[in-house]
Prior knowledge:
A: mainly alpha; B: 385 residues; mainly beta; globular
Amino acid sequence: MGDRWMTAMPESSLENQDISCNSSQFTIYPSMYPTQFAVHSSIPFSKNSYSILSAFCSEENISQCISYINQEVSSLGFPAICTECSGQPELNMVSVLNTVYELLQLHRRSQRTLENLETEQFKYSSNLEHLQLSNSKLKDQLEHSKRENTGLFERERQLQMKIKSLQNSLKNEKEEVQKLQNIISSRATQYNHDMKRKEREYTKLKERLNQLLIDKKDKKLAIEVLNYVGRSDGKRSLWKTGKTEARNEEEMYQTLLKNYESRQKDLMVENAELKKVLQQMKKEMVSILSSRKHSLKGETIEESLEQTASDNEEDVCDSSRETLELSCEHAREQLTNSIRQQWRLLKDHMEKLNSQASLVQNGKWVDNDVIPRKAHEEEMDKLKLEIQQCKDFIQTQQQLWQQQLSSPCDDETAALLNDCYMLEEKERLKEEWRLFDEQRRNFEKERKNFTEAAIRLGRERKAFEEDRATWLKHQFLNMTPFIDRKKPQTSYSHSALSKSPESEMKIVSTPGQLKKSLSHTSFSTPKATPVKMPSTTDLHRTLRLIPEHRSFKTQPKMGNLQDSILSSDISDKTRVLKAGNCSIYTLSDAENSPK
Amino acid sequence: MNFSEVFRHTNQLCRVSPDGKCLATCVQYRLVVRNINTLQILHLYTCLDQIAHVEWSSDSQFILCAMYKRGLVQVWSLEQPDWHCKIDEGSAGLVSSRWSPDGRHVLNTTEFHLRVTVWSLCSKSVSYIKYPKACQKGLDFSRDGRYMALAERRDCKDHISVFVCEDWQLLRHFETDTQDLSGVEWSPNGCVLAVWDSCLEYKVLLYSLDGRLLSTYSAYGWSLGIKSIAWSPSSQFLAIGSYDEKVRILNHITWKKLTEFEHPVSISDSRAVVYREMERRAVAGSDDLSIHHQIPAGTSLFSTQSKYEICELPIYVPIVKPDPDRANPKIGVSTMAFSSDSRYLATKNGSFQVLSLSWHCGGDSLILLSKEHLCLCYVEAEAPK
């Protein structure tokens, strides 16, 4: 209804219009006006609107208008608004309304697009403005910088000019200086020349004056002395002769020589001191470097140290030589060279240390030999902890051990246990004592045998001596080759042999050897005759041995004590037995061997 | 400290005898000899004219009084006050007069340095030495008094003559390689003679006693050269003070420069100790001593007590720039003195008013003399080496 009303309105308005409209003005008046009013209508139209509206359509040309509109609409793509029926086009209301609606929509759309376009256009225009502004700004900046650039160029040029001018002036100054120096030197020569000239004149004047004075023979030119005084040193003045001249010369040279000698002495002393200092320095340097040798692995250093060691030896020899030949060039050179070498080594070492220190400071350096302080401390702590732990462990062990030993489960068992242990020990001891007694008895036996043997030997010796004496007598008396000499010899040898069957002496039939053996036996007889003495001394010794052995074999382990005693005893017994079995020789040896 | 009464004198002629027993002063034309301990007048002599120069003989027996204007020299004896001796140079004139080391000869230099006359007091002999050179120090006796070196100028060249003082025989005569010899000085051991050139050229020549040239030393070229020279008492060092305000030390073995000392305007070396005298106006050069010194407070004689305080380094020494257009400018090291053990060297640089520096023979105190003041400086005794 509203639609109808709306559409009816234009019709009614159209109809009410009085203004005639030329139908040819269709194209001029687009549908803008009617649509405007149609859209915003609810307002009663004024006469003007009527007049505009009536320009397109009026009562007369309705059908033309309709057909025109139809054409237009169909050209726009809308369905026809009117239907042709019975000669007069009639409006199809529905399609008209639809078309109108469509047209309205279209119109709205186009308005919207227009708006959009307008906004866009606005945007673009503002952008354009902005760009233009910035463009102008940049242009200004460019101008400005161009100006600056030119200014700087200008300045640079000026400075260059200044430099050039300064250089020129410097050159000029130098030239001037040179010129002035030349002038000075030329003037100096001129002055010298003039001076010389004036001086010559002056000397001439002096000569002249001198001449005049001498010629004048001024009487006043004299000395007036009351009496002549003696010389201060009491000597008489001497005439000037050739002798005095020579003497003067001699004295002069003597003073000079004395001076030189004293100076040379001083220098030598100084030189020796300096050499000593250098030697000392060198030794110290060598010691410093060698003390580092242990921590260093470098072969080169070892080599050089060897070299320096050899140098050192050489120099030690040299120093003694040096004191004699103080001006020995070679020795001096050697010393200075070795010092230089040492110093170089020391310097290298110091540099190395410095670099190491700097690296360590930077924290970059890792070396197997040198442990950084932290790691060192950590290790120290670890070790301390370990030590503590071990100590605790030992403590606990000791406690347990003590417990074990001291407090058993109950007293009886403890006593029994103790008894058991004691019994064992006792048994063992008994056994050992038995053995010991046996051995002692054997030893006594042996000793007895030995003493008897010794007594026998003594007797036999006496007999032998007598035999020998008689034999010698015979020999002496019977110098003839006719008597048989073998008998006494063999008898003597036999007798000697029979005396000591167990002896290890190698008895030879020569009298010299016999004598030797005799002498040996004679030597040992004084010791053998006091029969008991060797044995007792031996016993003493063995007895003494026992405490000695005890002293170094006793450890706080009680069980082993008796073992040790017995073992020492056994060893001594064997020794004693050996002594008993052996000959006089070995006994005497045992006696004489220092213990 | 006690003070004696004040005595008059003229011309700053006041000499202590070498044996230290007597003091000779001049008042106008009178010579007054006093006993040093009692200051009693021992002798009073009258000379013929105003005395210009007084000198004791080496054995303290005679005093020489020279009157340059009249060309007279009068010699007085202490033992015999009646004894007199008068030497008249007459028209030759007199420029300087001195004793010989043996105390029995008087050497007079005549006017214009025409000759040196050697008058003997014990014999009738007179010797003449021709053409001595007129220079800063043309004549020097060796310490032991045996030799005399005299600078001469012949044929526009410098020569040196060495005489034996005993009989005034010419020992050596040689030419030196100098432009204009300015001075000669024997080393204390009498074996080396140092000869230096005028300030227009820096050159030191060292000659041995027999006239051989040992070495030459020259520090630099064109600028003004040597101003003063000093030997160390041990003859080991030769100190050369020059116009460039530096002291250079040469060693006696190689005659090469050992070291050089500067006199900078601002002292900032931390080892230097600077003492400033408070209260008085002109410091007598006490704050311009060589760096090696460690000097505690000194005292000044007479009335005003002045205090010395140690100044903080760096310190700027107030100097007066001399006029460069004048000859013999007052710059450079003009006075030097070694201590007796050769450990210290005192130097005076610039235009300070110190006229002389001398060490006590013990080596631990220094006396500075200016025109009107004197100052004693005591050095801290360091442990002997």
